[in-house]
Amino acid sequence: MILENINSPEDVKKLSREELNLLSGEIREALLHRLSDHGGHFGPNFGMVEATIALHYVFNSPEDKIVFDVSHQSYPHKMLTGRKDAYLYPEKYDDVSGYSEPSESAHDHFVIGHTSTSVSLAGGLAKGRDLKGEKGNVIAVIGDGSLSGGEAFEGLDYAGELGTNFIIVVNDNQMSIAENHGGLYRNLQELRESQGTCPCNFFKAMGLDYLYVDQGNDIGSLISAFQKVKDIDHPVVVHINTLKGKGYRPAEEHKEPWHYCAPFVIETGEPRHKPEGGEDYGTLTADYLLKKMKEDRRVVGITAGTPTVMGFTEDKRQAAGHQFVDVGIAEEHAVALASGIAANGGRPVFGVYSTFIQRAYDQLSQDLCINRNPATLLVFWGSLSAMNDVTHLCFFDIPLISNIPNMIYLAPTCKEEYFAMLEWSLHQNEHPVAIRVPANGVIHANRKIDTDYGQLNRYEVVRKGTKVALLALGSFFPLGESTARILKERAGIEATLINPRYITGTDATLLDALKADHVLVATLEDGVLDGGFGEKIARHYGTSPMKVLNFGARKEFVDRFDVTAFLRDNHLTAEQIAEDILAQL
Fold first, then answer.
1. Is pLDDT above 90 for 38?
2. Bridge partners of 138?
3. pLDDT over threshold 90, residue 275
4. CA–CA distance, 330 with 29 (Å, rounded to integer)
C-alpha cells in the first residue's frame, strides 16, 4: 500500500504519475472505511483527493502555506502530512479533529471551521511573508459554496491589489451544502461551459489573474496547472471543476445528504443506526411554516446555506417556491434581508444554527434591532450538548443575542410553547424576536401554555414553593424539575419552579416577591455563564440578602469533549445542583 509509506509531502513528490493515481484510490478507500465507521464530512473530501495530492506534489508545505476554507475537506491533506494513521486504524480515528488544527501539525496554520475565511487568512499570511522579506507560496483553497460569504468577497477584493505571490484555488463542485445560490454561480457556470474563456469573468473583474482546469479530478491536469502558478509574482485564481463525492456513487448522485454523513453501510449507503422515530423540531418547523405560507403570502423562510436545520429538505423547498430563500453561506446578508422584508410588511423567519448566528452580530445590532423590525430568528442547537468541535460550539448565543437592545430572545421549554411563541412572533409588529429552539428533543407540555408574549419579561411560575426558587431556562427546564424533586426527597424543600421564558429581561415584580419567603434563587441555563441569563438575576438581587447561585458553563473553548463528563465538570447534573443549593442553606 502506497499510503502506508506516506509520512510527509516529500514522500508524495517521489511517486510516479501512475503511483499518484493509485494513491488517490487508496485515500478514497481509507476515507470510505473511516467515514462508514466514524462519520464526518464525506462529499467535500472525496471531491478534493486529486487536488490535494497535486498541491503537495507541486508545492513545498509547510514552507509553502496551504489554507483550506472551512477545512472540512482537509482529510486527504492530513493523510499526506503525517497523520494517515488516524484514517487507517480505527483505534486512532479520534487522534485528529475534523478540521485543520495547528496543534496536530506544522502543515496546518489556523483552527478553522466556519466558512469564507481562507482568502482573508491566507492573504494575511502572504502580507506577513512580505513584511519579513521571506519567500514561499501562499495558497488559499475555497469551495463548497464558500464564495457566497461576504468575507470571501472582501478577501478577493484585497487580493486583487496585493501585487505579490498569492494563489487562490477555487474548488468549483457546483454545490454548497445544498445547491448553490446567487448570481456569482451563474458566472462560474459560464466559465465552466466556455473552458474559462467567456468575457464575463468575476475573478478578472476583481483584478486577479485566472487559470481554468476543466478536469479538476485529474492529477496530471492539476499538477500542470499548479506548476504554472508556482512562485508566481502576482495574485492568481486557479479555477478547478471537480465532482463532489467523487468515487462513491451514492455521494455523487445525492450530493446534499452526503455533504456530511453518520456511520453507514458501504454496500448500500444506508445509515448503520436508523434514527429513532418521533418528532424533531426541524421537520415540525418546516411543516408549520409551509402551512403559514399557504395562508399568508407574506411569510418567507430564510436560510444561509443550511436549509435542513429548519426542516426544508429539497421537496419542501420546492413546495415553498419563492417563499423560501437560500442566500448562500451569508448570515450577515440573511439578517439584513430579514430586516428589510419585515420593514416592508413581510413576515421573515430566518433559521440558523447557534454557532453560525455569531457571524452576523453587527447586522443583528445595526440592521435589525436599531430599526426594531419584526423579523423572527430561530436559533437551533443552542446548547452545551449540541456540536462539540471547538469551531462549532453552540454555547455563546445567549450572551451574544440577549444583550442587544430591542431584541426579544425567548426560551421555550416544550413543543407547544415553541409554536405558541413562533405564532405570536409572526403576528406582532413591535419587536425583532429570536427564539432559542429547544435542544433537548421534542417534549410536550403538561400544563397550559400562554399564547401572548407581548407583556414582556413576565416569567411563568410553574410550581409555587418556598425557601428555594429555581429559574430553569429553556432546554434546562427538565433539569430544574429534576433538581426540585431531589430537594424535596433529600431535604423536604418544596422549591418554587419558574420558567423564565424571556432571556432578554428580568421580571422585577416576581423576583422581588420571592424575597418574602425565599432565601436562595438558582438559575439554570444551557450555555456559558459570562454575560448570560443568570448574571441578570444576580445583578437584580445584588443589594439584597437573597443568595443567588448561577449554573451554566465556564467561558472557554473546548474541543471534542464528552458531553456527560463536561456537564459534570461544570456542576450541571441535578444531583450536583441540589447539593450546591443545600450547602448554602
1. yes
2. 65
3. no
4. 34
Q: Do 468 and 520 form a contact (C-beta atoms < 8 A)?
A: yes
DSSP state of 276: P
Cell reading at 299: 411569510
Cell of 60: 513545498
Asked if 68 and 100 count as a contact pair (C-beta separation under 8 A), the reply is yes
Kindly list the strands in the beta sheet with 299-303, ordered across the sheet, starting from the edge strand earlier in the chain. 324-326, 299-303, 347-353, 376-380, 433-436, 408-410
Q: If you ran DSSP here, which 8-state letter would residue 340 be given?
A: H
pLDDT digits (tens, 9 = 90+) for 184-226: 999 999 999 999 999 999 999 999 999 999 999 999 999 999 9
Per residue in 354-372, pLDDT tens? Answer: 999 999 999 999 999 999 9
Q: Residue-wise over 198-231: b if at least 16 C-beta within 10 A, else e?
A: eeebbbeebebbbbbbeebbbbebbbebbeebee
3-class DSSP string for 221-264:
HHHHHHHHHCCCCCEEEEEEECCCCCCCHHHHHCCCCCCEECCE
Per-residue pLDDT for 283 more than 80? yes
The pLDDT value recorded for residue 188 is 95
State the Cα–Cα distance between residues 585 and 273, nearest whole angstrom: 47
Q: Are 360 and 332 in contact (CB under 8 A)?
A: yes
Other C-beta atoms closer than 10 Å to the C-beta of 324 total 23
Sequence-distant (6+) residues with CB within 8 A of 242 are: 47, 48, 51, 143, 171, 172, 173, 216, 217
DSSP 61: T
Q: How far apart are CA 448 and CA 455, in angstroms?
A: 17
- At residue 181 the predicted structure's pLDDT band, cuts being 50, 70 and 90, is confident
Q: How far apart are CA 303 and CA 310, in angstroms?
A: 8
Task: Give the whole-angstrom CA distance, residue 214 versus residue 221.
Answer: 8
- Count CA atoms within 13 Å of residue 327 on its CB side: 20
pLDDT of res. 179: 83
d(CA 338, CA 350): 7
* Bond from prior residue into 62 cis (ω within 30 degrees of 0): yes
